[in-house]
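Throughout this chapter, every protein is written as a compact record of paired, labelled lines. An example of such a record is reproduced below:
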Amino acid sequence: MKAIIVDDERLARNELKRLLENFPHIEVIGEAANTDEVSEMLETHQPDVLFLDIQMPGKTGFEWLETWEGFLPEVIFTTAFDAYALKAFEVNALDYLLKPIDLSRLSESIQKLEKQVQAQTRAIESPSHKLGAQDQIFVKDGEKCWFVRLDRVRLCESMGNYVRLFFDDQKPLVLKSLNAMEDRLDPKVFFRANRKHIINLNYIDKIEPWFSGGLQVTLMGKGEKIEISRRQSIRFKELLSL
């Protein structure tokens, strides 16, 4: 697995590289002193993991993640400050390591990374495998690419032969039918609301009665309002009832 280290302190980068030598299957293919340097490296090398410092000159690790729209691997934050731990997991980081980094703690992170990569590989090799909230998918729309964990996808919308995925502030198109998408997604998490929409049940903010015995749900995030057809409303109630 390929790794890139982003840290403004050269000694910190060297120490992390030294620790990673204990994991022969992890290859450090690049390092950067700030987020400006790493952007081009990601597109060129497409690593499996990014070890990302938080406090750096210019953009912080968080600020960069909020604006970066290109290829993004798994992110493991490395920082001397424990105050950012909650925010790190809010942006779906794989892990959060405090400096000075302990070898046993780094080993735990590598194990998480291995499990994540193995899950992605199984999903690719087994088309019948249902993708759950913790699985990650590769999305390409034009020149932009993302690795997206499905717990970030709140809505799938049919657009003819394409499906538009809604996650964060992004709305890329995927060349796949909504029926094919439904076949791949875990029905305990992703619910077919109507002919055009699949919703992530974890993003439902509000439910209201709607016309002809149907329901209308409002999703967290951007507040999209999606109608659940009368027929699907029966399934919806059965699925979520005690």
The chain has a mean pLDDT of 87.
